[in-house]
């Protein structure tokens, strides 16, 4: 067997999509199309503060592993917030940036970050990232939303663990949306039915488009909604129309577009991504305010889609306790961190330890507010 070599690259252009995709099958956000598209459309590039430094592992000329890695000049687009850490560095006359980040830009979804089926390759990739942190005088290394199976490898490398909360829906083998509602408490079930009925009475209809059925004008309308949402929150959108156009062209089999209409006029849109057994809720916006429309377009349509397709999991994204009443339950997500400076590392480790207790208490409290009836929480549903 050839010896293992690690190479850092700043583009995926030299690696063919099938070769790259073989490292993380059924992971659309780690696909060549998604990641390379972020770079070629300028969304995640050096000029926007994301400098790719992908770690790749080779045996001879064969790619056997990789790690999506970036030198970051800020902490935007990460969804694991370390602004207070950067501020502490600044207060002591130190620079927190650049830092190293292993993540999918602008995408808080759980998945592998050390892309190899070989444990020794994964360890080598992580060791190479830590060595790069030191050689580039980066303040830290952060691995965001790694899957559970890779947490122990991060711990073994001396990384500290940090927890956060998301809301996920799990398919318990539901026959249809009514079957899903049957497992909820009377009040929660009644509320969702009322929300859906009011939309119907307001002559709001929704359609779901996938693959080749996604029309160019619908995609343009979605982007209008997407940018409007950012403007309403006094923010700048991370992603460009060229990027969404690239997704629709290069990975249409992974895109779900929900369009809401009233009196024949489009009024809202949501774009989700799916692959394997999972659907990820991602982007949404509206051009007309209608009560309950956000819940319908972003959650109920996604849940119905999962039931129809037999998908196991719907990840509703970061933040939003309002998701709980719609059947999405709290789950702990994780990140792993190394701080190069020993004194800052000790202080941040203490902060993370206390934060983890608070996150655990929050999840316990949210679980007690579950919208599901007690008997359905254990898997016994009405037949």
Tell me about this structure.
It is a single chain. The protein has 383 residues and is of the alpha+beta class. It folds into two domains: 4-158, Aminopeptidase; 168-330, Gcn5-related N-acetyltransferase (GNAT) (Aminopeptidase), CATH 3.40.630. It has twelve helices and 14 strands. It has helices spanning 17-21, 32-40, 83-91, 119-135, 151-156, 177-182, 186-201, 216-232, 241-250, 293-309, 342-368, 374-377; strands spanning 4-9, 50-52, 54-59, 62-67, 69-72, 99-102, 140-144, 160-170, 204-210, 255-262, 265-275, 278-286, 313-318, 329-339. The strands form two sheets. The chain has an eleven-stranded mixed beta sheet. Strands 1-3-4 form a three-stranded antiparallel beta sheet, with helices on one face. Strand 11 and strand 12 (278-286) form a beta hairpin. Residues 378-383 have low confidence and may be disordered.
- Beta-strand level of the residues, as a percent range? 25-35%
The number of E-state strands comes to 14
Overall pLDDT? 95
- Give the helix tally: 12
Give the terminus-to-terminus CA distance. Answer: 56 Å
Poorly predicted runs: 378-383
Order of helices and strands: EHHEEEEHEHEHEHHEHHEEEHEEHH
Helix content: 25-40%
> What is the CATH architecture term of the largest domain?
3-Layer(aba) Sandwich
Q: Any idea of the CATH class of the largest domain?
A: Alpha Beta
- Estimated structural class: alpha+beta
**Overall domain count:** 2
Strand order of the largest sheet: 2-5-6-7-14-8-13-12-11-10-9
**What is the CA-based Rg, rounded?**
22 Å
The CATH homologous superfamily of the largest domain is termed Gcn5-related N-acetyltransferase (GNAT)
């Amino acid at each position: 067997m050839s010896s293992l070599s690690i190479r850092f690259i700043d583009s995926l252009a030299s690696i063919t999509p099938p070769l790259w995709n073989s490292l993380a099958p059924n992971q659309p956000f780690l696909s060549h199309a998604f990641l390379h598209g972020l770079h070629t459309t300028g969304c995640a590039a050096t000029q926007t503060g994301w400098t790719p430094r992908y770690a790749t592992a080779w045996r001879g000329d064969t790619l056997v592993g990789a790690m999506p890695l970036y030198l970051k000049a800020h902490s935007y687009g990460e969804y694991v917030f370390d602004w207070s850490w950067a501020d502490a560095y600044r207060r002591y006359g130190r620079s927190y940036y650049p830092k190293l980040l292993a993540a999918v830009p602008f995408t808080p979804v759980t998945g592998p970050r050390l892309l190899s089926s070989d444990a020794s390759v994964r360890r080598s990739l992580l060791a190479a990232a830590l060595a790069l942190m030191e050689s580039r005088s980066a303040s830290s290394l952060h691995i965001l939303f790694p899957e559970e199976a890779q947490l122990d490898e991060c711990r073994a490398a001396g990384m500290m663990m940090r927890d956060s909360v998301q809301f996920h829906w799990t398919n318990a083998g539901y026959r249809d949306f009514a079957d899903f509602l049957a497992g909820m408490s009377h009040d929660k079930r009644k509320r969702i039915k009322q929300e859906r009925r009011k939309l119907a009475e307001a002559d709001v209809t929704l359609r779901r488009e996938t693959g080749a059925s996604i029309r160019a004008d619908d995609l343009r309308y979605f982007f209008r909604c997407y940018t409007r949402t950012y403007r309403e929150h006094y923010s700048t959108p991370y992603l460009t129309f060229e990027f969404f156009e690239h997704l629709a062209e290069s990975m249409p089999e992974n895109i779900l577009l929900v369009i809401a209409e009233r009196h024949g006029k489009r009024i809202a849109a949501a774009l989700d991504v799916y692959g394997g057994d999972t659907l990820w809720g991602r982007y949404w916006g509206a051009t007309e305010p209608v009560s309950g429309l956000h819940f319908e377009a972003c959650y109920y349509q996604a849940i119905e889609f999962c039931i129809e397709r037999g998908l196991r999991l719907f990840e509703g994204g970061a933040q939003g306790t309002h998701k709980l009443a719609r059947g999405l339950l709290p789950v702990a997500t994780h990140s792993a961190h190394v701080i190069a400076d020993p004194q800052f590392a000790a202080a941040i480790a203490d902060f993370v330890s206390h934060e983890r207790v608070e996150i655990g208490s929050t999840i316990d409290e949210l679980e007690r507010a579950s919208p599901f009836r007690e008997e359905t929480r254990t898997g016994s549903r009405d037949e």
